[in-house]
Amino acid sequence: MSVRATDRLSRLLAMVPWLLNRQGVPLAAAARHFDITEAQLVKDLELLFVCGMPGHMPDDLIDAEWDSGRVYLDNAEAISRPLRLAPDEAIALIAGLRTLAELPTTNSPHDRRAVESALVKLSAAAQDAVGAASRLTIDLSIGAVEETLRTAREALRRKKRLRLRYVVPARDEITERDVDLMRVTNLGGRWYLEAWCHRAEGVRLFRVDRVAGVELLDVDGTPPPEAVSRDVEDDRLFTPAEDDLLVTLEMEPRGRWVAEYYPVESTEELDGGRLRVTLRVANPRWLPRLILRLGGAGRIISPPDLADEAVTAARAALAEY
Amino acid sequence: MSSRRTERLLNLVICLLATRKWLTKEQIRLAVPQYADCDSTEAFDRMFERDKEDLRDLGVPVVTGSDARWFDDETGYRIDRDTYALPPIELDAEELAVVGLASRVWQQASLAGPAAQALTKLTALGVETDDQDGVAGLEPRIRTAEPAFEPLYAAVRDRQPVSFTYRKPNGEAALREVEPWAVLSRSGRWYVVGRDRQREAARVFRLSRIESNVRRLGRAGQYVVPDDLDAHQMLGTVGPPEDDRIAVIRVRTGRAVGLRRRILDGEKPVADETGEWDTLRVRVGDAGGLAQELAGYGPDVVALEPPDVRADVIRRLQAALALQSGLPTRVPDRERVEETQ
Prior knowledge:
By secondary structure, chain A is an alpha+beta fold. Chain A has helices at residues 2-20, 27-33, 38-49, 87-101, 109-126, 129-133, 146-158, 258-261, 286-294, 304-319; strands at residues 25-26, 63-65, 70-74, 136-139, 160-168, 173-187, 190-197, 202-207, 211-220, 245-251, 266-269, 275-281, 298-302. By secondary structure, chain B is of the alpha+beta class. The chains are: A alpha+beta, B alpha+beta. At the A-B interface, helix 1, helix 3, helix 4, helix 5 and strand 4 of A face helix 1, helix 3, helix 5, helix 6 and strand 3 of B.
């Protein structure tokens, strides 16, 4: 309860100066900015309405009006300036900026200047939090292939179509696709291009480190209206479907990392530090290959034909030596 | 009750900010209507103490003092207006755009609230973030799915020792007592580095392997983080090790496309007389990782050179076959399976 009251207070103290400088802002826009519902925003305004200077006569109270669907605020002089940044706020921004500073995507002299000067200005305002911010670091540079990301950003800026040569390891092939880029994003520590793929006629995510070649085409790259960004809210990038194949693996202690690396359905501890893992996969062809790579650190329990496939592949591979 | 409490705190902030004089507790009690809820002075004292602490936790500078001419040395309170307000930070449009981008790094993570709040404060005085500029469509994101993130982040921030149950990669779980120095994320995983008290040495822990709640031990600010701490260095070097030898590999025509992307600059695969196989050369880089990758291609590739990589591939294939088909085997002793792909 106490936490909630102070969180709300903190929002109100930030909201008042923001609204004072945007008289007449629509309720919906303000609610969106604060990531709350309009109903919650009205509750906040009602609360502001009964607060104010000691004495609490009508003239002492904050004046808030929103009946017209637009918000007007007055008589809030005492809290008209935003509260200084709390440590967590300063840490979040500084750590975020330092992350950007390490990215090849922000490597244009333009971006770099902006990131560095913003860091200097925020660090000066944040005082004590700077030390703590240096102890929170995020490295998003792995797999951030510079050429691909740079071309992708150019495609976004100039709204041009991209031609990708894309590696599909599960099928061990390279495909060529023309795509209209929607965003460049990092999910689960990997960089992706989200785009409308003209070959698949749908929205697809392409791993940047699997793009073997990228070319900017002189064709308009505005995605079609039906291209809707998939909001990847939960931790699983690829939500397994009910009819996906259920696979059971047993990992030796050395192979336990598999449970952390792949989105598993369930895990079960076995004797000797071994682990039973189940996962749902749309295309199981990569699993026998995983078993060969693991080199005795794990095996397929079911389905049996997938286990047989791994045995056959291992025998066939050894026959070549 | 939350609403009433927020009202009380907000009125307290307004009255302590507006005052030029020091306000005594009694004056505050009268000025903030919600304190009328307290039916005794003791109850009010307790409530006021807690409110003061809550405000200070938010960063509101509640200061104490007195004006001896007027009060008999009774403590007075007010909020220091100069340190209350965010100092003017003038950010131009480009700077604001990257700050916006920095705050959105947290959009789906633990610090989303503070990051958004900070941006609101920075834009409170009227400057809008412009989403039409060069950062549109660029979304670097981080996640903090591990329950241990929040307590460990707070412990690092406050320099407070912690204990937790940790399961090592080999499966053993044990209680660890740690002075956390830094939290860091790489490849989508969170780690904490710090001094392990039992082992009296620096250690790295992966947050997803923490199995218990994180318990804070003792008070904040108890230890000093080494000046020369390089947390990322402690995680190990980034990128493939520098093994400059050349590997020679026989590959079935059209197969192992991932491997073909790494063919040495200026070289091409050489087809043999059957037309079914190519021979190509790549840099070894990480010998263990390469052997693992080659084993994964199964009957589509044959490692020819160097001999140690060839032997390693054979050994992996044999071990995989043995385990999968239930035959007894000697488990390979030297292993680096993890996270090379």
